[in-house]
Amino acid sequence: MAPKVFVITYSVYGHVNKLASSVVKGLQKTGGVQVSQFQFPETLNSTILKAIHAAPKPDIPEITVDKLAEADGILFGFPTRYGNAPAQVRAFLDSTGGLFAKASLYGKAGGVFFSTASQHGGQEVTASSFMSNLVHQGMVYVPIGYKSPHLSDLSEIVGGSAWGAGTIAANDGSRQPSEKELAIAEFQGEEFAKVVKKLAGK
Fold it and tell me: pTM for the whole thing?
């Protein structure tokens, strides 16, 4: 059976979900992995979401703690909150103590992609601070390095780093992921699939 890769996102305005579409495209390019998309449970009520003009939630299932253990590799996508994952993501991870106790995620591949409001909004520190969650679960962090030429492009602003794909949304959310940012996300998915297959012995 082909190894399973989960792409799990939290996105308020849709930027992260656009990156996720390209990540999935990259995962599917290599063949040999089963890809499933999920979203983190929302903790804000509908009144607040309406007040902040949040985008409609995608038509994908919410991830559950028990489901998480089925994956051979997991890519997490989310916007930054003061250099860390948002509360919705942290609340879910706080509920995975049972998986930690059983080492259910041990040896599985993990990676991240992200969105910030500004060019210097903490993309790298968001990824590095999130890595402690993977380390405590015994997961294998899979970065993308600088193999993608777009990460060294100085002709325009490009989100992302060696830690993972990223986009810059602007303070009002008006900037959408660029073609180069989407290409980096696709590259991340493709390279992640290769690592997952190696770890699974496929």
Answer: 0.95
Look at residue 202 and give its three-state secondary structure. Answer: coil
Amino acid (one-letter) located at 79? P
Task: State which residues form the domain around 8.
Answer: 4-199
Element (H, E) at 168: strand 166-168
Q: Can you give the three-state secondary structure of 112-159, one letter per residue?
A: EEEEECCCCCCHHHHHHHHHHHHHHHCCEECCCCCCCHHHHCCCCCCC
Neighbours of 146 (CB within 10 A): 11
Can you tell me whether residue 195 is helix, strand or coil?
helix
Binned at pLDDT 50, 70 and 90, residue 91 comes out as very high
The CATH number covering residue 144 comes to 3.40.50.360
Token pair of 11, please? 């996105």
For the chain, the 3-state helix, strand and coil shares in percent, each to the nearest 5, are 40, 20, 40
- Specify the number of domains making up the chain: 1
**Could you read off the pLDDT of 97-109 as tens digits, one per residue?**
999 999 999 999 9
